Amino acid sequence: MRTKEASLRIIRVFQQLPRTGEAAVLGKQLLRSATSVAANFRAACRGRSTAEWYAKRCICVEEADETLFWLELLGDSGIVAKIRLTSIEQEYLEIVSILASARKKAQR
Asked: Which CATH number fits the domain that encloses residue 51?
């Protein structure tokens, strides 16, 4: 499952963050949002109704976009070198795009 693999990558990023207050705050937010994407995607796949599936997908899109925000802040603040985050940021851009597209199709 792509969202689970991406969240595992985020866990590894989190584990390598410097031991500073600001890194801890941003890192925990990043960890929460990334793991939420994977958990809600899994829940959506097991949804009991179309409405439940749609609601969970909406949460996935929101949390994936939030994950991108925390990654950007880690890079822009200099806590993590931007070059080290490029690949995982690209992965979350793709996840947002895929999930948003599926959500739009379901809306029709």
From this structure: 1.20.1440.60
